[in-house]
Write a structure and sequence with these properties.
single chain; alpha+beta; Transferase(Phosphotransferase), domain 1; six-stranded antiparallel sheet; three-stranded antiparallel sheet; 11 strands; 40% helix; disordered C terminus
Length: 277
């Protein structure tokens, strides 16, 4: 497998670890990554916050996320790549590409992975700039009622989110796991995180857009936040995202139909998975 770090990043080897770091980070960060990599396996989605020094003497707060399991092989207890690049490296490449063209993502700092003896499976991790004051979409929705936001203020948040989604789509980034935990709001910014599984295309297709928005709608319902967002506000989001609903009537119908279909299917598993969101 050919390992090509993104522009502005370099590959380092420390024992069994393959580490890619942003070039402005101090080499001592390699030891910090190795220490974080040897921590006990975290809970699903757990973020560890650390401090990395830079070459200029400043410090950066880092959000460090370990890869434990994923996909079909994860269900079997195997984190296998079948010879392809580790997902942590794929995520870094997508995030670096997105940041390079101004797409709204958390700035990436690097990743690591360690192969097992067979060369077919690995453990790994990904790290990006920690958004210290940001709230995820789930927390923003919970705060709507407590803060008693007006309809105008709620629509401002929805419009901000829709504009960020449009930027992501225009950049050719397909976020395959868009959930209420993977969208961050920090003042006038909206950022996307957890691009594990995301990929780049020349142009986001209609089917990819439908699948992405359907995944978001399913996450809203599974997390219990769906009750906080009215149908009118969801349609407002689609209007901001797609432009004129009249001109995109068939597309909106397909989005709503797939969302309803996904909800019927996944509701069978909600009781078991709610605590994992």
């Amino acid at each position: 497998m050919k390992i090509a770090p993104p522009k502005g990043f370099s590959l380092w080897i420390r024992g069994q670890y393959r580490i890619i770091l942003r070039n402005d980070l101090h080499p001592s960060c390699l030891d910090l990554v190795c220490e974080l990599a040897q921590r006990p396996d975290p809970r699903r989605g757990e973020i560890v916050v650390a401090t990395f020094p830079t070459e200029q003497g400043s410090k950066i707060l880092v959000a460090f996320r370990r890869t434990v399991r994923g996909g079909l092989f994860g269900r079997l207890g195997i984190n296998s790549t079948l010879g392809f690049a580790p997902r942590t490296l794929c995520e870094l490449r997508v995030a670096a590409t997105a940041e390079g063209i101004g797409a709204p993502v958390a700035p990436p700092l690097g990743c690591y992975w360690k192969w097992d003896a067979t060369g077919m499976s690995y453990t790994g991790g990904y790290f990006s700039v920690y958004q210290e004051k940001a709230l995820c979409l789930s927390e923003v929705l919970e705060g709507w009622t407590a803060a008693r936001l007006s309809l105008f203020q709620r629509r401002q948040v929805i419009s901000q989110f829709a504009r960020a989604m449009t930027q992501l789509n225009q950049a050719g980034i397909v976020h395959t796991d868009l959930t209420v935990r993977n969208v961050l709001f920090d003042r006038n910014r909206c950022l996307f995180i957890d691009l594990d599984g995301a990929y780049t295309v020349k142009s986001v297709s209609e089917q990819e857009l439908v699948s992405t928005l359907s995944r978001l709608n399913r996450s809203l319902e599974k997390s219990g936040r769906g009750r906080l967002v009215s149908l009118r506000e969801r349609l407002w989001f689609l209007k901001e995202q797609l432009g004129s609903l009249r001109h995109n009537k068939m597309l909106v119908r397909r989005i709503l139909a797939q969302a309803a279909r996904d909800l019927r299917w996944h509701r069978l598993f909600w009781n078991r998975k709610k605590t994992m969101l």
